[in-house]
Amino acid sequence: MANTKKTNTIILTGLMMALTTVATMAIAVPVPFTNGYIHLGDSMIFLSVLILGWKYGAIAAGVGSALADVFLGYVHWAPWTLCIKGLMAVMMGLLIQKTAGDPKRTAVAVGIIAAFWLSFHYIVNRIILHEGTNNPSALLTEEVADLSALGAFLNGMQSQLMVIALLIPVFLGSIALVIRKREHFILPLSQILGMTLAGLIMVFGYYIAGGIMYGNFAVSAFSIPANMIQFVIGFLVASLLVAALSKTPVEKYFALAIRRQTQRKPSFSK
Question: pTM of the prediction?
Answer without folding.
Answer: 0.86
